[in-house]
Amino acid sequence: MFILSILLGIVAFSVWCIPFALPVWFFNKSNARWVPASTKRDPIVVRHEVATILVILLVWGGVMSLSGFGTAQFSVKFLDDGLSETIRSYYRWATVVGVSLALIGLVIAWRYSTTFAVAGLLALGLGGGAALQSLVSDQQTWEWKQQHSHDETENSERRPTTIRFQLVDNIEGADLWINGVHLGKTPYETTDIELFSKVKPWEHDERREAEKMGGDERVVYHTPQGQMLTQWGWCPLHLHGVQDSSNLYYRVELNGVSGYSHVSSQESVGPSNSPDWVRLMTLDTVFPAWETSIEELLDRARMNNYEVDAEWWDAFESYGSFASQRLNGALREEPQLKQLLMRRAERKVQLDSVIDAASAWRVLMEIEAQVSQAHEYHSESDMGLAVDFLVPFLDEEQLVNYALIAMKRWPRADLGSTMWTTTGFGTYGTAGTNHGTFGGSGHGDEVGAWPIAHAVWRLDQRLDAASRPTLAQGDLNGSLETWIDPTTDNLVERRIVPELIKLSRENSNAVRYAGVLGGSAYERFVVRHNWREPATDPFNGNVRIGVSEVYMNGWFHKLVRLDSPLGTEFRRQQKDRLLDIARDAFDENSIMVGSIPDGVEYLFLDSGNAGNRPSLAMQFWPKFDGMMHAVPEHSRQEALRESWTYLARMWPESTEEMFAKSFADAAENSDYIYVPNFPDDFPASEQFKILSGVIESEEQRVSKLPDDPEEQRYDGPKHRAQRGLSQLKERLFELPCIESAELLVTEMTADPKHSWRGRLQGFLAYDREHEDLLRLITNTGGAELQKQIIPALETHPIPSRRELLRKLALHEELRNLDTSLEDSVVEEARAAEARLKALETKPLTEMHLTELVAPQSNDDQSEETDGDAASAE
Amino acid sequence: MLTLARWQLRQVNYLNWVMVACVVIWSMFTSELISFIHGATMASAIFVHAALIVLILGSSSTSGAGFIYSQGFSRDQIWCSQALALLISAAMPCVAFLLTVGTGLRALLQEAMGSPWFPLLGNSELSELKWMLLAYAAVFSTFGYIWIRARQPSKDAAAGWMVAVAQIAFFIYCWTWMRFAPPWLCNVLVGTALLLIATTTLALWKFHQNVEVQA
Amino acid sequence: MEPVVIAAGLGRDYGTQTILQGVNLSVPKGSVCALLGRNGVGKTTLLKLLSSLIQPTHGTCTILGDSTWPKTVTTLAKTGVVIDGFEPPLVARVKHLLELGAAASPSFDRKRADELLKSRNINPARFWTELSKGQKRWCLLVTALCRKCDVLLLDEPADGLDPQSRVDLYQMVRREANETGMTALIATHIISDIERVADRLAILHEKSILLESDLDTLRDELWVIICDAAPAAADLPASAEVLHQTTGNLTEIWIRQHESGDVPSVSGELERRKPTVEELFRALTGKPSTEVAPDPTPETVGS
């Protein structure tokens, strides 16, 4: 194959030569008719032509070099990191040969003939390029085959594969064991052959024995934030692609402290099939001491109602990326922690200096500068929150004017990845939970455009909220454009959106961003496009609906998503087509996904604002319900989940009866049904209302069911229905709302053997939203229940909970009033309060992790130490 | 000089008017955005028009060229008249574009035809004029060099073709990059293109002083 | 008279082929010089060299004292050129030629040009393509003549012209030469016409000027002597230059007597006569000149 590729290259070269050789031959022949044989070339001609070729080669070669080998921020990279050493050597040689040929070409042009120099360079460049690509392609195929046949190859025939074990955050100095063999300290590098010479695979029993030796306390670890790591003391090590890699288990200790490991992740770095190719095993290990310290710092913040000072931040950031990861993770469950991000933003950009438009503008510019430098921005990050904070202070005209300038400065800015929801615009920045990192190629300082875009979006929201336009009334029988009302456009929609649409000529992201902002210009732009043409494939801007092979015309898709009078009218006019699309989009595959496909969100847009007309969702419900009813029995659970999600999205147009009927249908036709979860953002009080209705309906249904025969005592219809009913009630108690809390406390008070009395502590320990329940139990719960809530009050010491704890511990008045408040409760509460008090008064300097071991991935907080000791205490 | 320029222009006027008609019809009726960077229509039309003009005016091997060179004008006079004729030839479609787009005629017609881009775009497509002129300059200088170089009383006549091939390849390379390159790189590429156009034009003028007329 | 058109050692190669080599020519002011030569001998190339259309490979050419290449605009403006095969493009009208002539030369006589065109029924508004071959040639010649040039270089000017036009053309050239001192170099094949107007003759043969002379002098000095046998070289007078000699039953000897007086009789002489220019041309260019051609060095060929 190698020889063949060389031959192919030569053939390609020859073919490429022809078009360049022909004009040379032709012209020189015709030229010979009249140019005297003795005439030399004019030196000026030579200089000009050589200079021209030189300039072209310099610029062309410069751009290629920058995009290929340098760090220039281009979206196209000539060489990617995954290339093998062999292929890289091809490119290196090609570069050397290319530069040499260019030099030879220049000499030929200078001394002999521009024609032959350029023709030669073009022919060699194109022909050689074709040959090189052929060679590279051939090599890549060969490498792929080699790689995939690796497992089948005998050890002796294999080239050793380098494996590097490292801890998360690249912490150095941790001891690594694999299958009971101490290998060394992290980062530990070995080869697969060497590894298997030291380590023998364990059978299952051997591992179990090893775990017993390690002790149970290592097996399960409850993280301070309420997660339970139920990993083994010896964590499975998945070395994909390495022979005999099954039955490998690892353990990590740092300074004698055992780490608690999750699964390991693996990636390959460096060029494949070369000595530099390394399988990088990142061991995701937690060290409880550090986690505890970080959590204590967060508790300090919670006790202070999330108000923290610079000293706190110094301590917190001493934990490096461990602290950042913890904070980011906790934000999802504890939105109040955003205040910490605000404080961090204050540290970075003097947010507290903002008092007027001028100061706010100064800070926004500072944010833009920092973001441009960091190549990182996310609306949920500290900087994003700072922008949210600034927008009300900003001068609207100034922001809009600057945004227009920014559009000219960064015409092709990505404008961030956006997540669209029916209710607006989810987050701005990168999708996902982590703060987006855009330090790679392709973005450059264009990230600086994002905070501006974010601010404009927020401004648009503010302006919309300030003057929500009345519903425009267009011509029912006339053009759709009559439903567009330019008079309701706000400043952003009037000035920014048209420019964004103009910009979309060279930046397709601009239209998407314009869609987020909305306005008459955008609506007219969309409605005038060809939205009528049906879509059959994923090309030409068509949008895939759900997980099935169903596509929607991109412009049609934009129109049906419009949350405006035009959108409503469009959906009314296109009702039949939309219902057909919805019918095609929902199938068994989409049910398994467990959410409403993005593409059919339009069904729910007009719930509640379509006047007297039922919304599309309501019109489609009978069809949808029928489809869910027809799913096979093994998918009944997923169908119920889908139905409830659908009904929840339709709420309040949907009714409790619809939920109840859906549940009953599923329960009647399935052996076992779990009560589905409601969407996260669905209000708990509404859930209570619905679940109460469903329970009532189920109770009636159960009461009408005949008793199960003896042989079906545990799986008869009535038993199943009662089990479902019991589940529904459990779910009702779990709701974080006052109604649920009152019901639960009442029931527990009335029934000393109530099942929740036994599980209350565990439930509250990890669920942070039950302030009502905690308050009710504190005040009226009785000693047994009060004792159970004390850990929850202590582990999440926000001021309101601390108040409750103090109430239990200190308030004699309460004790006098409530005779049920027993001494044991007071003691436990006092002890808890004392611990919190101790934490509260603990000097922050003692909470620093001054010996953090080389968290190399985090530049700004890392403090290189001698690398062995790591202690939180 | 003007008489001479008119003489030169007369030879390509029919082409210019065809181009003007094409520009007017196209700019009025195309619903696509007029974009030199993102669409090949304008670039292709300019390429053909400019190349034909240079072919007619630039060649010194025709009977007509022999005639004009034997009428008592200096090489510089003839070159200046050619340059003026080329400039006017490039200006004619540009002016047509200016009139249809700049006056809002295109916007009016397109809006009436239901184009999504109008009246939003207004006359902002006028900014394409600079690319049109740049394209004309690029083709004029590059192709002009072919003829001048071929009629230099020296060897290596095909060098004009080769330099043109290299320059055209480079211009296409720049044109491709312009679509997604960062602004600074666009500036570098446009700057280099301008430099090549300027040096080639200068060389054209210089070499034309020694051009031989072989009809 | 001082020469205004001078070629000194002028040569031109096309590729590896030499078209002209060592051409020496000197045309005095106010004279009309006929440039004769066989087809493809390089007459047009010589005119192109003189009119700066192409660059000499060797030697220099001087027009009106200007020996640069290309000639200065002043020189070019005073030089009228009509080269065979060089025509305006199809889209041109006749009047455009006149405008061009006026632009090239401030002294262009538009009135006369109009009259001359009218005399041939040529409407200035007509397109070039609408004219006959003769009309086209007439237009080109009129344009060149009406520029009132100091030097006129014409290449086959009578090609396509009717006899009357040829006569008129040469009369105009002669008149201009006489009245304004214009110098004309006319390359042609039609010797009978040019003989009436030219006062000088240059014969181009085998890449260089074979003969250049004042026409009247040449007529005086040239003799053809017919003998029954070829005379010995010693029998010929020392002042006589044998230009050409034929052999056969009778021998023809073409002699140019440089000194005044008659050529003395030659042994075996049967008859002597004055040849015509056409006879001379045919005699000199009809056979390979290597047989008897004089040394093409300036000393031998020059007048």
What's the short version?
The complex is a heterotrimer of chains A (873), B (215) and C (303). Chain B has 215 residues and is an all-alpha fold.
Describe the 3D structure:
The complex is a heterotrimer of chains A (873), B (215) and C (303). With 873 residues, chain A is of the alpha+beta class. Chain A has 33 helices and 15 strands. Mean pLDDT of chain A is 77; it is low at 70-78, 151-156, 215-219, 417-443 and 852-873. Chain B is 73% helix and 0% strand. The radius of gyration of chain B is 19 Å and the shape is globular. Chain B starts with a helix and ends in a 7-residue tail after the last helix. The mean pLDDT of chain B is 89. With 303 residues, chain C is of the alpha/beta class. Chain C is built from 10 helices and 13 strands. In chain C, a hairpin with a 2-residue loop joins strand 8 and strand 9 (208-214). In chain C, helix 3 runs parallel beside helix 5 (133-145) and helix 6 runs parallel beside helix 7 (191-197). The longest helix of chain C has 18 residues, at 163-180. Chain C starts with a strand and ends with a helix. Classes of the chains: A alpha+beta (873), B mainly alpha (215), C alpha/beta (303). Chains in contact: A-B, A-C, B-C. Chains A and B meet through helix 1, helix 2, helix 4, helix 15 and helix 17 of A and helix 7 and helix 8 of B.
Which blocks of ≥5 consecutive residues of chain A have pLDDT under 50?
70-78, 151-156, 215-219, 417-443, 852-873
Count of separate DSSP helical elements of chain B: 8
Give a short account of the largest sheet of chain A: 5 strands, antiparallel
Mean pLDDT of chain A: 77
Structural class of chain A: alpha+beta
Count of beta strands of chain A = 15
Oligomer: heterotrimer
Beginning-to-end CA distance, first to last residue of chain B: 23 Å
Overall body shape of chain B? globular
Radius of gyration of chain B: 19 Å
* Portion of residues within helices of chain A: 40-55%
In round numbers, the mean pLDDT of chain B is 89
Radius of gyration of chain A: 34 Å
Unreliable spans of chain B? none
Helix content of chain B: over 70%
Count all strands of chain B and give the number.
0
Blueprint of the fold:
The complex is a heterotrimer of chains A (873), B (215) and C (303).
Chain A: H1 2-31, H2 43-68, H3 85-111, H4 114-148, E1 162-167, E2 175-178, E3 181-185, E4 188-191, H5 192-198, H6 204-214, E5 221-222, E6 228-229, E7 235-236, E8 249-254, E9 257-258, E10 260-269, E11 278-286, H7 288-303, H8 310-317, H9 320-333, H10 338-349, H11 357-374, H12 382-390, H13 396-409, E12 417-421, E13 424-429, H14 449-466, H15 491-503, H16 509-517, H17 520-527, E14 543-545, E15 550-552, H18 554-560, H19 565-573, H20 575-585, H21 588-593, H22 616-629, H23 636-650, H24 656-668, H25 684-704, H26 717-733, H27 738-750, H28 756-766, H29 771-780, H30 783-795, H31 799-810, H32 812-817, H33 823-841
Parallel strand pairs in A: 1-11
Antiparallel strand pairs in A: 1-4, 2-3, 2-8, 5-6, 7-8, 8-9, 10-11, 12-13, 14-15
Chain B: H1 2-29, H2 40-58, H3 63-69, H4 75-102, H5 105-112, H6 128-150, H7 159-177, H8 183-208
Chain C: E1 3-14, E2 17-28, E3 32-37, H1 43-50, E4 58-63, H2 73-77, E5 79-82, H3 94-104, H4 110-119, H5 133-145, E6 151-155, H6 163-180, E7 183-188, H7 191-197, E8 200-205, E9 208-214, H8 215-221, E10 222-227, E11 240-246, E12 251-257, E13 269-273, H9 277-285, H10 298-301
Parallel strand pairs in C: 3-7, 3-8, 5-6, 6-7
Antiparallel strand pairs in C: 1-2, 1-4, 8-9, 10-12, 10-13, 11-12
Helix pairs in contact in C: 3-5, 6-7
